[in-house]
Design goal:
- It is a single chain.
- The chain has 389 residues and is of the alpha+beta class.
- It is built from 14 helices and 12 strands.
- It folds into 2 domains: 181 residues, no CATH class; 171 residues, no CATH class.
- Strands 1, 3, 4, 5, 6, 7, 8, 9, 11 and 12 form a 10-stranded mixed sheet that branches.
- Helix 2 packs across helix 12 and helix 12 packs antiparallel against helix 13.
- The radius of gyration is 30 Å and the shape is elongated.
- The chain starts with a helix and ends with a helix.
Length: 389
Amino acid sequence: MMKYLPFILKNVFRKKTRSILTISSIILPLILICYLGTFLNLLEQPNAGESRGAYRLVTRHKVGLTNPIPSNYADKVSRLDGVLAVTKFAWFGGIYIDDSARNFFPRISVEPETFLKVFDDASLSKGSVDDWINDPSGCIVGEEIFKKYGWKIGDHIVLKGTIYPVTLQLTIRGVFGVQGGRSDTLFFNRKYLEESLPSFRGKIGTVWTRARDSDAATRLPTQIDELFENSSYPTKTETEKAFQMGFISMLGNVKLLIASMAVIIVSVIVLIASNTIAISARERIREIAVLRTLGFSRLMILSFIVGESLVMSIIGGLLGILVFLMTFKPLKALLAKTPVGGLSFSFTIFPETILLGIIVSTVVGLVSGIFPAIGASRRSIREGLRYIG
């Protein structure tokens, strides 16, 4: 069959404009399929103990994030075997300048003394941890928002509370960055919030734990939840990734949605490619009849047309995969700046995704070519020679 490849290629590009448009119609959807496949692989990755820079776990109230848990839970968790460090989190929210989306960034009260022990992949590029610890109203900010607002070390930031009825006046004491992760968050000392709002004292939103190793990260969630199972504040402990995926799950059955989108996209590609191949075969009815008179069998004719469909689809598929690889890194950087930016650290090119792209382009080529090929190969020589198109 390989000796007929030049003949197949010649027929593929006989109508160059039509062929280029058809290949383009395969490239763009295939790029989307590759990204959908990447996201599905990301959802299905084993997440026990796998996070950037550390084995991190998150403990929250079993009912939901809106329910606080006692701050002394962190001390109890820290005494478990396999725990290297523990820190306390409480989402503050609030308003900076105004409540528009352009001025939104996460604002969280934490424990400065333990924060960087748990988030060991974060480092201060400006200022110092000591300055932050020694200033009750001090805060550290991510490099991205530091640049966005043109702040300087020592600048004052005013946050008007929304969840908590208090206005905080904070001083920038440090700037942090996270390699391969997001750095658009503001962290301030939770003691300042307790002093400003005594009713908040003793309450936190989550406990973040850094486990010693993968085994500890797998074992500790069950141990932590059993520790508080019969208390007034039962907990749910999960890996950092699972915690972040919880926000995505609020959208519904994401896996089913992605799979359904992929099926629809593939179906559209098949219809477009089938239409192109059908038009090409119809234009060459007399030519195919001549080939039959020269001794080419029905099976050979069928193989030629399916081969044309395969070549066109595989060219589109390979180009789509190439564009996917070229755009992956910029998209990953863009993802890091979104509300689900924490996922960007594990957003990677999976070999399964590349294989998926190759399989999809091959299947599209076969399915879109088979029906026009069957129709063309079954037409009689007499009918073909009499055809006037």
